[in-house]
Amino acid sequence: MSTLELYRTPEERFRGLPGYDFDPHYVDVDGLRMHYVDEGPSEGEAIVCFHGEPTWSYLYRKMIPPLVDAGYRVIAPDYAGFGRSDKPLDRDWYSYDRHVDHVSRVLDTLDLRRATVVVQDWGGPIGLRWAVENEARVGGLAILNTGLFTGRVSKGFMAWRDFAERNPDMPVGFVVAGATATEVPPEVLAAYEAPFPTPESKAGAAQFPLIVPTSDEDAGAAEMRAVADALSRFEKPALVAFSDSDPVFPFPRSGQVFCDLLPGAGEQVRIEGAAHFLQEDKGELIAEHMLEFLRGGGTG
Question: Is-contact 96 125, C-beta < 8 A?
Fold first, then answer.
């Protein structure tokens, strides 16, 4: 068996990133060093945050401190190919099943009970599948600007897929800046780019759009349909909060899909003045809504 070629981002790339002074935590999964943020009391009720594409745990830096200050333990893993996790160079290595498997094995090393699962973008397919496959360890869901990719995609998505296919050296900062409603400072865009200093380090980021199923028969479509089916019987409480300025997952239609699907969902929350990466635009506000939800204040 050939050895998997990996890229490991130098540690100095992560020094002094604005707003991100969290200690790294690592676990080995099949020879890959996988990274996760783990803040707050180890015995605290857990909140697990699943990032999207082409971001990493840095996306949650505005939400982590207020949630930790409220007594919660916040965990934010980096997928293989992202953040401080190792990055396989072979783009064919990346698949939906493999992403789910690797992040699941990271979370298996932690003692999670009644965890609230926070998902956005690709974090939805990955995190919601983890939630339904580990229902006994889950206390609730917080669903932000995401969907389940079951084979039907929009013209807007196909344009994004075409862009990714034509740009394997993905301009990560440019992508983040184009998917936020607020002006992102250059040093913050540089932090999003920190894990990816070379073209080969971007293999996972470049491949993510290409593994979205575009037909019912594509890899991952049946699995995501199964997740949707399981969610229709998922009785635990769910906060659904979508931003008002995301052309990829437009409000209110995209969030209403989850409100209608999930028995435990209340009325959809509208996050004003935010685009696709709403955690970057309005992270502190989202944390406030989450704390209200977690304290039993409802989702409206």
Answer: yes
3-state secondary structure 235-292: CCCEEEEEECCCCCCCCCHHHHHHHHHCCCECCCEEECCCCCCHHHHHHHHHHHHHHH
pLDDT tens for each residue of 90-122:
999 999 999 999 999 999 999 898 999 999 999
3 state SS of 28: strand
What is the 3-class SS of 37-93, one letter each residue? EEECCCCCCEEEEECCCCCCHHHHCCCHHHHHHCCCEEEEECCCCCCCCCEECCHHH
Sign, CA dihedral 55-274-294-234, equals negative
Active site residue 121: yes
CA distance linking residue 237 with residue 264, whole number of Å: 4
* 55-103 pLDDT, tens digit each: 999 999 999 999 999 999 999 999 999 999 999 999 999 999 999 999 9
Place of tokens 């690797």: 102
Coil, strand or helix at 144: strand
Does the active-site annotation cover 246? yes
Residues 163, 169, 174, CA angle at the centre, nearest 5°? Answer: 65
Please tell me which residue in 35, 51, 78, 121 is annotated as part of the active site. 121
Name the catalytic one among 78, 86, 246, 281.
Answer: 246
> Is residue 276 annotated as a catalytic residue, yes or no?
yes
